[in-house]
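Deliverable D4.2, example record:
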Amino acid sequence: MQSVVIIGGGVSGLTAAWHLRSEAEVTVVEAGPRPGGILRSGTVAGVPVDDGAEAMLALRPEAVDLAKAVGLGDDLVTPTRAPVTMWTRGTLRALPAGHVMGIPTDLAALRDTGLLSPEGLARLAREEELPAAPLDGDTSVGAYLTDRLGWEAVDRLVEPLLGGVYAGRADRISLRAALPGVADIAARGGSLLAALRSRKPSGAGAPPAVMQGLRGGLARLPHALADTCGVRVLTGTRVRELRRTATGWQVALSGSSRRGLEADAVILAAPAYAAAPLLRPHAPAAARELSAIEHASMALVTLAFERAQLPGVPRGNGFLVPPVEGKAVKAATFLTNKWQWLAEAAPGTFILRASVGRLGEESLLGREDGELAAVCLAELSEILGPLGRPLDFHVSRWARGLPQYSVGHLDRVRTIRDAVAGLPGLEVCGAAYEGVGIAACVAGARDAALRTLGRTAGSGL
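Output generated by the structure prediction step:
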């Protein structure tokens, strides 16, 4: 049985360990105090809440299937259905259904929302009349969509949804990496809106749930992975260096008098900025590309209020704020509206979570917890009406938490993978490559584990 060291104990590293559990001797090395990465929990007003991601994509099956495989299938839950809502032009406005990452497909319904000015609507309506040669290569989401839809549609419809996923900027995010379906349309040429409308599913009934969560919080997933795979997990342990040996790899650990860990294979599931120095002696081209990936930092401010003291409990699941509005809060989630299990766990409490931080806003995140919570409370009160004094608040920070998929990202990933392919017994996976979401990370980790076992990637659980 071969030995494998996995560097990084987030959802990617633990997923890889789970797939290797019965066919390799596995050690997971995690620099932080606990495994789980962006999936961890905190407490506000005595109620457990997710400190990081609180939902996973259900339209893509990998993460949901994994949750079922580790015994969490009965605890999968669907959020309350509610429209995507924007706070813009001084009020909350719902985005019509059928949009694709904010790109509208029903212009008649959009006209009644007030999301765009008459000029912005007129510019959008001209999209089908514009010439559109096939796009060759990559470009930014902002550049392509501004040409097709106008700057106002990008600023007020697309930018806030992209910001929720990447905490980045539309004028820098790769179209091919972030919106591959739209990129395929662009590569063929012609009207984007006409092509999106032609792809809308037909048939009766409610559309399938886009996202799913877990009763008790999504942070349960990494704990279940660690418990069911039964591998050794070393927390609070940093990797200093990777060394080639005659039979595989030696993993040198910082602050340890031990010689290190010997392994037949290594899976590098660490963030790009941590993976780069480990790869530099062995695959300098891969290290160079990983070092070039920017990261956005963010913070989540969770506030709990006594329901009886609120003038009125906000409806819906929350709202997004376009950057053009100039607010610190980029999104708010009404957690006890969105998740029925949480409302049952805190029946007299209203809990919401504000998201703060986009690429380039590090100075805002430098404020201490109480000041950051006060900023969020003031903006939320302006938007929702007076909220009063919260029962409790909790701040979680994610320094360099989201890798940025800049223009050319897929070519960058190809260069990294080609360089690593020349190193027998070494694989890479994580949010820096083919997707920042949990489902994408789970899929990438599964494929890395299968390649380590000499099998074809993507062959299922």
